[in-house]
Amino acid sequence: MVVDPSSPSSECPVARTLEAIGDRWSLMIIRDAFDDIRRFSEFQKSLGVARNILALRLKTLVEVGVFDVQPASDGSAYKEYVLTEKGREIFPVVVSMRQWGERFLFTGDETRSVLLDNEYGQSLMPIEVRSSSGQKLGPSDCHRVRVVAGES
C-alpha cells in the first residue's frame, strides 16, 4: 500500500489503517482468520462474498503484510492465508468493534455470537483505553500532537 504524501489523511494513523484494512470485507476476512479459516474456499463459504472481491481483498491484505501465503498444511496443492504478527495485532481492534456492536446494535432477545476465552469459557472484559499509569481514559483525556520525522 502506497499512501500519497500530499493527501490530507497521509499523516493520520486512523486514515492509513482504514485504507489498509477498513472496508467491510477485509475486516470480515480478518475476523474469520481469527477463527482459523485459512483457505480461499473457506473464506468464500463463510462470508458469501463474490470470488473477485475476495481475491482482491486477500491480495491487498497480503500486500500490506496482514497475511502470508503458505502451502497448505495438509500437503495438498492449495495455499493458505496465515495471519502474520501484524495481522494478529489487529485482534484487539476486532474485539473492540465486536464489543461495541454487542453493546449498541443488538436487543436482549436477538440471536448473536459472543466471544469467550478458551480457558474459563467466560466473556471477555471490555477493552478500555488506559494511560501509561493505568488510569482509564476517555476522548477528553487525550490529545494529538504532530510528530515530524527527523525532529526531536
Give me a quick take on this structure.
39% of the residues lie in helices and 7% in strands. It is mainly alpha-helical and 152 residues long.
Task: Give a structural overview.
With 152 residues, the protein is mainly alpha-helical. The protein has six helices and two strands.
Question: What key attributes describe this structure?
Answer:
Arc Repressor Mutant, subunit A; mainly alpha; two-stranded antiparallel sheet; 6 helices; globular; 152 residues; 2 strands
List the helices and strands and how they pair.
Elements: H1 13-21, H2 24-34, H3 40-47, H4 51-63, E1 67-71, E2 79-83, H5 85-88, H6 91-104
Antiparallel strand pairs: 1-2
CATH architecture: Orthogonal Bundle
Sketch the major β-sheet: 2 strands, antiparallel
CATH homologous superfamily caption: Winged helix-like DNA-binding domain superfamily/Winged helix DNA-binding domain
Q: What low-confidence regions span 5 or more consecutive residues with pLDDT below 50?
A: none
Radius of gyration: 18 Å
Total beta strands? 2
Main CATH class: Mainly Alpha
Question: What structural category characterises the helix and strand content?
Answer: mainly alpha
